[in-house]
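Hi again,

Forgot to attach this to my earlier email, sorry! This is the prediction with pyridoxal-5'-phosphate bound. I've pasted everything inline since the attachment limit keeps bouncing my files.
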Amino acid sequence: MGIARKPVLGIKPYIPGKPIEEVKRELGIEGDIIKLASNENPLGPSPRATEAVKSMLKSLHLYPDDTSYYLKNKLSEHLNIPVDYIITGNGSCELIHLVAKACINPGEKVVLSKPTFIMGKIESQIFEAELVEIPVKNNRHDIDAIIDALDNKTKLLYIDNPNNPLGSMLTADELDRVVKSLPENTLLIVDEAYREYITREDFPETIDYVRKGLNVIVLRTFSKIYGLAGLRVGYGIARPEIINILHRVRLPFNVNSIAQKAAIAALDDTEHIERSRKLVEEGKSFFYKEFEKMGIYYIPSEANFVTIKLEMDAKEINSKLMKKGIIARPLNPYGLKNYLRVTIGTLEENAKFIDALKEIIT
Ligand SMILES: Cc1ncc(COP(=O)(O)O)c(C=O)c1O
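Structure tokens for the complex follow:
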């Protein structure tokens, strides 16, 4: 087709987890559906965020605050970093887009793992980067190979920590090795979408690299533990020179007014955050035990999901699960045909998932 730019034709669109309504429509299911496909918080949003949303309903005729003033100030306090080190986005996905848009000249290299969260790859293709995909080793980012791949043509290095879809993480020492190997004009994007679930002490304090003035941008989101995926709000932390170039390429009013208000409220609800974290810890222990009993290989995870390896095509298993009212995430689009990623749900949802899986594979 002559209309599209050439690189656009080579892009495979992002495939999100199937929405509940779509599965109901397609399969004619009447009852409840359990969605364990998109690493959302099964407890829902914080009640404080819900109240904040309600408080905004009468001002929907007004444009949002383009600068996210109050949200950025709240984050600045929360992270103990000046406000001009922070940019908010329409989910952290938008921030990956802005970095790619602001930084990549055609033909420059983008280094990332295979598999990794897929938006880094898609954005690299849009902006005609040379994509360098480094296969993971033992289900973890292969930092030796990543470091070997870096050169002065490398504009971006994208690392999701923990990795989606594997759930494994880099330790502070490992990330330190990567940072020390960064070429002068390479920007390291560390995507910490699952940061708030981490309980390990050896997880890196990535923001310290930003404080030191290095070429590092840290991405975080309100879509996961804060339970606000539907509102689309995330943020990036980098030194002001980097934040300023991102502002040049973003659309006005990229974070809507409801999202800004709800995110502020969610950040303060430590009780909801703690409850969410605990639920995930309990859910993972339950899954691990059940998978072991069933002889299913799983990858221990630091995030709110677990990836398992099955004896058959995960897409088929997922179709069968959907017929039983459960949506999980087959990893075929990541080139992992027999792998299925399952989000930790409520204890009841987890038990239903295990029962359904048992029925399908035995
Ligand atoms: C590593 C990673 N980054 C970013 C995102 C997307 O986050 P957001 O909803 O903030 O765009 C996800 C969602 O699954 C993710 O796994």
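The CA atoms of residues 24 and 56 lie 31 Å apart. The domain at 17-44+271-361 is CATH 3.90.1150.10 (Aspartate Aminotransferase, domain 1).

That should be everything now.

G.
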